[in-house]
Design a protein that fits this description.
This protein is an all-beta fold. The chain is built from 2 helices and 22 strands.
Length: 381
C-alpha cells in the first residue's frame, strides 16, 4: 500500500549564479527572469510503520518535517547538463554543480518544502536530481571515476552507528533528466524508498509463571558473528550507496557496495536495559521500543553465502525465585545462529521464546538383594 505525501514549495527568492560552477550555467542567467523556481515534492514509495521520528526509528515523510528530527528534511544534489537528451553525457563528473547537498525542509507545520536560495529551471538542457534523507551537513557525492556514460554512478559513503539509539533510517530517491516541460507544476517529485534493512525483536516465555514463584528478567540481546559474542564480528559498518538506483525497482542489486572485510564489521549490543517479562501470561511478549529498531546495510547470512558471514543472537536473562527456603537468582546465556538474507527495504522481526523447563524429580528404590553364602555369626557370651 502506498501512502503519498504531496508537498509544494512557494517561489519567493531570486536566483544567484555566482557560486555555481561550470557546465554552461551562464545560459541560466540569461533567461532567469523568465524561468520559474525549482521546487520539490516527495512521497514514500513504501508505506512505513508510524513512528515518532527520533533516531533509531523508521522515517516517513511526516517524520522528516517533525521537530523530533529538528526538521532536518532531506538533502538534494543536482547536476545541470546542457544536453537535452543524454542525462549521462561524458562531461558529467557528479560534482553537484547546481544543488550541492541542498537542505530542503518544511519550516512550517504545513505541506510546503522549501530551500534557499531558490534556483530556477534552465531554458535548455536538463538537471539530474539525487536526494537522501535525513539531511546531514557535510555530505558529499563521490565523483564519477569513468568517462563512460553508462558507468555514471552518483554515490556517497554511509556508516552504520554502533549505538542502536544513534542509528537512523536512510531514504534515497532520484529524478534524472528533468526539465521544466516535464514538471508542469515546477515540482521535482521524489519517490523515496528505504535503503537499509530493519530489524526488530520480540521476547516471550514458553509457559506462564506465577509472579509469586519467580521473576524472569531479560538482561541483554546481542547480535554477533560468533556464539561467544566477541571472537567474530557480524554486520558491515561502512558501505557506498548508489543514488541513481531506481527506488521502485524489484531488484535492488547494485544499490549497495559494502566493505566486507572483517575489520569493517561490528556487533550490536541491542537491548541492554532490564525488561521484566509478564510471567502470568505465556504469550505476553516484550517488543523493542520504536527507538530501538536496528538499521543495517543489507547483508546475506544464509547458509553458504558468498562472504561466509555468520550471525548469532545471544540472549541473557535471569530467573529470580520468590518462594521456597532458597531464593536464588540464576543467570542464563543462550545463543542461536540466524541464517537469513536481510534485503534492502525489508523489515524483519526476530521472535525469541525463552523455554522454561521445570526441574522435576523422580525416585525409584532398588529392592533388597539378599546375600547368600556364609552367615555372619556373632556370639553374645
Amino acid at each position: 500500500m502506498y501512502k503519498k505525501f504531496f508537498m509544494g514549495i512557494a517561489a519567493m527568492a531570486a536566483l544567484t549564479l555566482v557560486s555555481c560552477s561550470s557546465d554552461d550555467l551562464d545560459s541560466l542567467s540569461d533567461n532567469s527572469s523568465k524561468n520559474e523556481a525549482i521546487s520539490f515534492d516527495g512521497y514514500l514509495g513504501r508505506s512505513a510503520v508510524a513512528v515518532n521520528g527520533s533516531r533509531g526509528s523508521v522515517l516517513d515523510i511526516p517524520a522528516l518535517k517533525s521537530t523530533e528530527l529538528d526538521k532536518k528534511g532531506f538533502g538534494v544534489f543536482g547536476y545541470y547538463n546542457s544536453s537535452t537528451t543524454d542525462h549521462s553525457a561524458t562531461e558529467q563528473s557528479f560534482n553537484a554543480n547546481l544543488f550541492n547537498n541542498e537542505q530542503v525542509t518544511c519550516p512550517k507545520d504545513g505541506t510546503d518544502w522549501t530551500y534557499t536560495p531558490l534556483k530556477y529551471w534552465p531554458a535548455q538542457g536538463h538537471i539530474d536530481f539525487y536526494a537522501y534523507a535525513p539531511f546531514e551537513t557535510g555530505k558529499t557525492l563521490n565523483k564519477k571515476t569513468s568517462a563512460t556514460p553508462t558507468t555514471t554512478t552518483p554515490t556517497f559513503n554511509f556508516t552504520v552507528a554502533n549505538n542502536v539509539t544513534d542509528q537512523t533510517d536512510l531514504l534515497w530517491a532520484n529524478a534524472e533528466n528533468q526539465t521544466k516541460e516535464k514538471n508542469s507544476s515546477n515540482k521535482v517529485k521524489f519517490q523515496f524508498a528505504h535503503a537499509l534493512s530493519r530489524l526488530g525483536y520480540t521476547v516471550k516465555l514458553n509457559k506462564a509463571v506465577s509472579e509469586s514463584e519467580a521473576t524472569i528478567t531479560l538482561k541483554n540481546i546481542t547480535l554477533a558473528g560468533s556464539s561467544d559474542g566477541t571472537s567474530k564480528k557480524a554486520f558491515y559498518k561502512d558501505g557506498t550507496i548508489n543514488l541513481a538506483k531506481a527506488t521502485d525497482a524489484t531488484d535492488a542489486t547494485g544499490l549497495w557496495e559494502a566493505v566486507t572485510s572483517d575489520d569493517n564489521k561490528q556487533n550490536f549490543n541491542w537491548s541492554s536495559s532490564n525488561k521484566t517479562l509478564n510471567n502470568a501470561v505465556s504469550d505476553a511478549e516484550i517488543k523493542n521500543p520504536d527507538n530501538e529498531y536496528l538499521f543495517v546495510i543489507p547483508q546475506d547470512f544464509s547458509a553458504g553465502n558468498a562472504n561466509n558471514d555468520e550471525l548469532y543472537v545471544i540472549v541473557e536473562y535471569t530467573i529470580e525465585y520468590k518462594s521456597g527456603s532458597a531464593k536464588p537468582t540464576v543467570s542464563y546465556n543462550v545463543s542461536k545462529q540466524l541464517k537469513n538474507n536481510f534485503l534492502q527495504g525489508k523489515a524483519y522481526t526476530i521472535n525469541l521464546t525463552i523455554g522454561l523447563t521445570p526441574i522435576e524429580f523422580d525416585a525409584d528404590v532398588t529392592g533388597w538383594d539378599p546375600i547368600t553364602g556364609t552367615p555372619i555369626e556373632i556370639p553374645l557370651n
